[in-house]
Amino acid sequence: MDEPVAIDGSDGPLVVRRLVVWRRLEPGDARTPGTEIAPESDHVEAKVVQVGVSEETLEELRRLGAARDEAHALANSWLARYEPAGALFAAGGGMGVGVWLDYLPAWMLPFAGSVAALGVGVGAFTRAMKARREREAASRWEAMPEREALAKLVRKLEPRWERFAARVKEDSGFRVELRVGDVHEADRLVSIDPARLADPATWEPDPGENDVRYGWAYADGRVVEQQAELEDTELAGRDDEEE
Asked: Which residue segment(s) compose the domain that 189 sits in?
């Protein structure tokens, strides 16, 4: 495996994580030594590279991320969550079904309707409260100096990540993003969710010695992180060369 690439451009010690990059195999193409076949498609090979950021950059991302989470915590309070409304509506609906199926006495029907109606009312209140709390949290974050510091880090990381992706493609033909929607439930495979370049979790070390993380990107914009256990790709590469 090559030496880690510093995505933040630092020269000091790096916090290293592994990335998966992919290449589509066309008919007649030979496997690249040291690669695996991607579990999402028999026609895609996967290779692992190493990247990282400095310890200072990661600590700064953690600090700024904590400040952002604190600013938005108000929007996640119980007054802005739909669980109470959902529980009331489900309870009222369940009692109504019980009356209809003769499991519960008929006199409970008005009570069931009242509980369901209360759930609707609480849901309307929650919706208004959630919108209000989200506006307040956004305004609070907008006024914090950490917001501009985080935006500055994003402006630093994004072009460096794009240059890294272009260099990997030019040097080896592998991509940090590959469409697989024709053969898999996800639309694309992504090495890192570009929207989370400034998320400290993106740059945390891999949880296990042979673990690697990558994403399934769906057509609706969701990116679900996957975790896989590597085979000994370096040994496989040596075996291929010996043959």
From this structure: 5-64+151-242
Residue 152: pLDDT band (50, 70, 90) is very high
Residue 135 has, within 13 A of its CA and on its CB side, a CA count of 5
Question: What is the torsional sign of CA 77, 149, 191, 229?
Answer: negative
Q: 59 and 85: one domain? A: no
Whether 216 contacts 189, CB under 8 Å: yes
Domains of the chain: total: 2
Pairing mode of beta strands 44-54, 14-24 = antiparallel
Q: Where a domain ends, among 143, 164, 191?
A: 143
Of 43-52, 211-220, 226-235, the least confident: 226-235
pLDDT recorded at residue 122: 80
Of 93, 94, 82, 95, which Cα lies nearest the Cα of 121? 82
**pTM assigned to the model:** 0.73
Reduce the secondary structure of 203-221 to three states and give it as a string: HCCCCCCCEEEEEEECCCC
pLDDT of 224 above 70 = yes
* Cβ(224)–Cβ(216) below 8 Å: yes
Is the Cβ–Cβ distance between 158 and 192 less than 8 Å? no
